[in-house]
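Input structure tokens:
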């Protein structure tokens, strides 16, 4: 509990220092907003409006409008009905939209450095304090032409839901698992399971048709797509920390007057701090809804849970080393060197 209080205090101090620096940043910058000029940024998400995975977006939009006195607003364009989830990256890069509320696994193929996030069990302000955010923002700009506004890292974790009772690693043999990340696929295959991928929005009907026995999803996804209605068990063990991200077209960012860039930075920082306790509060409610809907919480023995975690942990780092060797060392160091390289085996998340 003391560590949790210290981390929260550290996050608040970090926010205060950054916010205090913003006026000086503005004074040194060459650009200012034109008096009375209003700018609207368009944003799309990988899930529909109202889905729990968009938690925090409305808060961010309100903060931006309030802090800019209406000179900068963010307009919701739509979810998958407007832009397919796998096309959001292209839409942001080409300027069809200004901002994408996305998730790191969706663009892992072109940005393997995002794998480091999955093993970085830290809250957003910890990512900023340790320098991980700065590295990620730098790489987003260099490799993708995007500005990384912020993330929801540390807000929720991936778990395994199943219609087969999995109480031992031996139970995985022959189980068909829908896995959304390569690391999960490799780890489960090593245990004798078969893996496949199904788009998030199609999982409910796929489960009903018996196309797979288990699936990896954050609890917010289980809740948001009502997967608890067609799934029996939820394994309460954090498996990875894939974050949501706010990615912005770099030209759209650079065109903003400095004072409005600062509004976005300030609003993002405050939004990240607001989001964490809100996730924790809602996850308790969602878990109860899932239990009331008939799901049962199961777990592996501690030693086997640690074995599975270590398998996933190693697969992720090995994949990053193979795909982005030029950036591996500094990402590994900033995560593991700061003590955030492996999740807790049991207990609540975020860890105390």
């Amino acid at each position: 509990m003391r560590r949790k209080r210290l981390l929260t205090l550290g996050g608040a101090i970090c926010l205060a220092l950054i916010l205090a620096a913003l006026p000086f940043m503005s004074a040194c910058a060459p650009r200012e907003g034109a008096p009375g000029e209003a700018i609207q940024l368009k944003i799309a998400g990988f899930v529909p409006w109202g889905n729990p995975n968009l938690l925090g977006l409305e808060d961010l939009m309100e903060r931006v409008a309030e802090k800019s006195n209406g000179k900068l607003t963010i307009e919701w364009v739509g979810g998958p009905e407007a832009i397919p989830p796998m096309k959001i990256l292209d839409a942001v890069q080409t300027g069809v939209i200004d901002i994408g509320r996305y998730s790191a696994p969706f663009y892992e193929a072109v940005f393997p450095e995002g794998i480091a996030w999955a093993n970085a069990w830290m809250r957003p302000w910890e990512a900023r304090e340790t320098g991980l955010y700065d590295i990620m923002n730098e790489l987003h700009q260099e490799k993708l032409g995007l500005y990384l506004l912020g993330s929801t890292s540390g807000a929720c974790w991936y778990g395994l839901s199943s219609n087969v009772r999995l109480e031992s690693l031996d139970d995985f043999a022959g189980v068909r698992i829908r896995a959304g990340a390569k690391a999960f696929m490799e780890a489960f295959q090593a245990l004798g399971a078969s893996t496949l991928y199904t788009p998030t929005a199609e999982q409910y009907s796929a489960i009903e048709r018996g196309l797979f026995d288990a699936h990896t999803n954050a609890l917010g996804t289980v809740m948001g797509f009502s997967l608890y209605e067609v799934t029996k068990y939820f394994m309460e063990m954090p498996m990875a920390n894939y974050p949501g991200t706010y990615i912005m077209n770099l030209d759209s960012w650079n065109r903003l007057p400095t004072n409005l860039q600062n509004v976005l930075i300030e609003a993002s920082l405050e939004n990240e701090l607001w989001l964490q306790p809100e996730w924790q509060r809602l996850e308790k409610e969602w878990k109860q809804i899932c239990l009331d809907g008939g799901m049962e919480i199961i777990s592996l023995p501690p030693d086997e849970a640690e074995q599975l975690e270590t398998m996933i942990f190693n697969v992720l780092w090995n994949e990053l080393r193979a795909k982005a060797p030029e950036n591996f060392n500094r990402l590994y160091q900033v995560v593991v060197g700061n003590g955030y390289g492996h999740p807790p085996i049991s207990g609540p998340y975020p860890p105390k």
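The chain has two domains: 2-155+242-281, 158-240+283-336. Residues 1-33, 344-352 have pLDDT under 50 and may be disordered.
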